[in-house]
Amino acid sequence: MQEFFANLPEAIWLTVKLTLFGFFAGQLIAFVLGSCLHLTKGFLHNILRIYPFVFRGTPLLIQLFIIYYGVAQVGFVRDSFLWIIFGSAQGAAMLALTLNVGAYSSILVYGGLKNLPKGQVEASSALGIGRLQTLIRIELPQAYRHLLPSLSNEIIFTLKGSALASTITIMELTGLTRTFIAKTYSPFEYFPVAGLVYLAIGFVALQAFRTLERRLRLPGH
Fold it and tell me: What burial class does residue 65 get, using C-beta atoms within 10 Å of its C-beta: 0-12 exposed, 13-18 middle, 19+ buried?
């Protein structure tokens, strides 16, 4: 246990790094794709929905294996700058988490924008405000204010999803725990500790989002 606790800080940092990178990089994708889904119709709209459909409909573990083991077999990837990402277990895990979060969150952003009152867009148009400016200055700030509770759930899902990185040899919290269990055959001593650490990280993340919600809450709400 002393050796386990000595290695724990590094494993926790790696878990936090995977979670934060996957979540925030995924939000960039969601911001762009969700906005594009809101502004487009017809054929282009349906094309844009393919990516979230695929990544929301398949397990994160399968996505991780395809990115790390599958794409790495493509000769073009191995001989290009992309190998910096796909040739690294951490790079593959971050990419898988990013794409997964981006797929889920883009639909959240699109739904948040779609549910806003239509009269605001009409009023902006009547005042001569462009459609893109209306989206950026009026619609998106309102949508994200309402989306914060959903995004707090998303970062928890990302935290739990980061545990799958242990399947591609990354020694984050779950990977470290599994390694010591394999050495000692004592799962009861190690899994509860790992579970408590995940709970602590999740608690801090939820408190951060609740603080943000209070700061952005409209007066009287």
Answer: middle
For residue 218, pLDDT over 80 is answered with: no
Determine the Cα–Cα distance for residues 97 and 154; give it in Å rounded to an integer.
Answer: 11
Could you report the per-residue pLDDT of 18-76, keeping only the tens digit for each? 999 999 999 999 999 999 999 999 999 999 999 999 999 999 999 999 999 998 888 88
In the CATH hierarchy, which top-level class contains the domain 2-216? Answer: mainly alpha
Q: Sketch the domain layout of the chain as residue ranges.
A: 2-216
Contact (Cβ atoms closer than 8 angstroms) between residue 21 and residue 98: yes
Residues in the chain: 221
With a cut of 60, say whether residue 120 has pLDDT above it. yes
Q: Which two tokens stand for residue 159?
A: 């935290």
Contacts of 138-147 with CB under 8 Å at 24 or more apart are: 139/38, 139/113, 140/31, 140/35, 140/113, 142/116, 143/109, 143/112, 143/113, 143/116, 144/109, 144/112, 145/216, 145/217, 145/218, 146/112, 147/108, 147/109, 147/112
Select from 46, 160, 53, 55 the least CA-distant residue to 101.
Answer: 55
Beta carbons within 10 angstroms of residue 56's beta carbon: 12
Q: Residue with structure tokens 């990354």? A: 170
Quick one: which of 174, 219, 191 has its CA closest to 12? Answer: 174
Q: Which two tokens stand for residue 45?
A: 């709209």
Supply the pTM of this predicted model: 0.92
User: CA–CA separation, 4 vs 98, rounded Å?
Assistant: 29
